[in-house]
Design brief:
two-stranded antiparallel ribbon; 2 strands; flat
């Protein structure tokens, strides 16, 4: 199975030669990624490969890049993905979280609900089975102003 790495720096721009990059991959627990009636199963990764596309540039393009890099740094715009999770006790009717975001206001906020058991990893509960838990109101405020979409 081949999949694209979904990372903050994934984009259609190529990196210049000599850019140092280190990628560390940490897999989830078996209980998070498997569904079974018992826990006698496990995931074994026998081989992992990272395919990187390399280009051979015309020497004149390489010289032009070097000249441009002497005048200013290369700029790679990224869209940072920040995942935050909060636990709410069962039966709690309200949850207020202040200062969710520091600095720049995010372009998009996605709110989902999943049981704590499924989130923590359970062979019998899917972490991708999102539920509404009878929520009847959600609001998001920025500087005291309601910025919630009309749901």
């Amino acid at each position: 199975m081949l999949v694209k790495l979904h990372l903050d720096f994934s984009q259609n721009k190529y990196l210049f030669n000599g850019v140092y990059m280190r990628i560390r991959m940490v897999r989830t627990k078996d209980t998070f990624c498997l569904m079974a009636t018992n826990d006698n199963f496990k995931v074994v990764i026998e081989k992992a490969s990272l395919f990187i596309q390399r280009l051979k540039l015309n020497p004149s393009v390489t010289v032009a890049h070097a000249s441009a890099l002497m005048k200013r740094n290369a700029i790679y715009p990224i869209r940072r993905v920040d995942v935050k999770s909060f636990t709410t006790p069962a039966g709690n009717r309200s949850l207020d979280k202040d200062n969710l975001f520091q600095g720049q206001t995010p372009r998009r906020v996605i709110v989902t609900f999943v049981s704590n058991e499924a989130f923590s990893g359970s062979m019998i509960k899917s972490p991708f089975r999102l539920q509404n838990f009878d929520i009847n109101h959600i609001s998001l405020h920025e500087d005291g102003e309601d910025v919630s979409p009309n749901l």
